[in-house]
Write a structure and sequence with these properties.
elongated; 5% strand; mainly alpha; 14 helices
């Protein structure tokens, strides 16, 4: 069997939706794991949902110029009316609070992406649907481990964009949701396949290039409106969405490969539990064909075998996109010569 015939050597990365087989099965696991984590955290949020306490008033209201008595009276009135904001235990520790980030709680730049709005199911449902649809395309293009790094790094980048924008506005800001990572995936898919046709809202046909351009414009307009009306007027973290898109643009333009910056002890080998070995079919040629093949076959030098195995392992861990042009040419030439 030639090298190019191995399941993970087929050049299906140019396909928008990717192929099936073992790679599809492997990529499903990492995406499902992220979805499960988000759902479990959401359940924990709903289970601990309750109105804010008096001590948390400053996180949700501007009470700098109010006396203690006024704050207590306002809190009591809001509680009786049932109009106090509600929060959860996970939110208290892990939501993106721009003020607390600048006070040193930098873990919030990533943990917020696993929380979602408790006002309903739409927020988490849309994000998880987009994660599933876009994630499997990105995994097929870049590999499991690289996808995970993209997902986490884009969340941090989007969170930092939100925090800085709130600092510019001179306002406190709270944000939750995987939207920053999801918009990064959308951006990355759009730049890889700009002419791919999709349907906005399931019935408006347009190319991904047009879609991402409209999305960029929408988020910029939203940020400009927040300058006029304040960040809380619309309840949408436009700056985080834009940050995710910019991350995808930078990743694509500069051909980042984040796993190259990860120490070997934390490499993709730690994710082998997400992989399934490719299914190989045994072919038994006729005796005459076996004789012809045996006569024509050339012995493969050990150093060639060793390097081919290294490159195929690299592909199975980080995706075909991680290969350099020289490595790609070496594989194809070796396959042609020794198959």
């Amino acid at each position: 069997m030639g090298i190019e015939n191995r399941d993970y050597m087929r050049d299906d990365t140019s396909s928008f939706y990717g192929g099936g087989g073992s790679r599809s099965a492997a990529m499903q696991n990492i995406i499902k794991t992220l979805i499960i984590i988000n759902v479990v955290v959401f359940i924990a949020q709903m289970a601990t949902l309750k109105p804010i306490s008096l001590a948390e008033m400053s996180d949700y209201y501007n009470i700098e110029n109010a006396s203690t008595e006024e704050v207590k009276a306002f809190y009591t009135a809001e509680r009786r009316a049932g109009t106090l904001p509600e929060t959860t235990l996970p939110n208290k520790w892990f939501e993106l609070d721009s003020r607390k980030v600048f006070q040193g709680q930098i873990w919030r730049l990533s943990t917020y992406s696993f929380l979602h709005s408790t006002d309903g199911l739409m927020h988490i449902l849309v994000n998880m649907f987009m994660l599933h649809m876009l994630g499997r395309i990105v995994v097929q293009r870049y590999g499991n481990f690289e996808f995970l790094l993209i997902y986490l790094a884009s969340a941090i980048f989007a969170g930092a964009t939100f925090a800085v924008w709130m600092l510019i506005l001179g306002q406190p800001g709270l944000a939750v949701g995987a939207s920053g990572s999801v918009t990064a995936l959308l951006s990355l898919v759009a730049f890889n396949w700009p002419q791919q046709q999709v349907r906005l809202y399931f019935f408006i046909p347009m190319s991904l290039k047009t879609l991402i351009t409209l999305a960029f414009g929408f988020e910029i307009v939203g940020m400009l409106k927040s300058l006029i009306y304040g960040s809380g007027f619309f309840g949408v973290a436009h700056s985080a969405h834009l940050g995710g898109m910019v991350f995808g643009l930078l990743y694509f333009k500069y051909s980042w490969h984040l796993s190259n910056y990860i120490p070997s002890q934390f490499s993709a080998k730690k994710l082998t539990r997400f992989k399934r070995k490719p299914k190989l079919r045994v072919h038994h040629p006729p005796a005459s064909e076996e004789m012809e093949v045996a006569q024509a076959r050339q012995p493969i030098p050990p150093e060639v075998v060793r390097r081919v195995d290294e490159l195929l392992e690299k592909i199975s861990q980080s995706g075909e996109a991680s290969l350099t042009s020289e490595e790609r040419e070496f594989l194809h030439e070796s396959s042609r010569k020794y198959r």
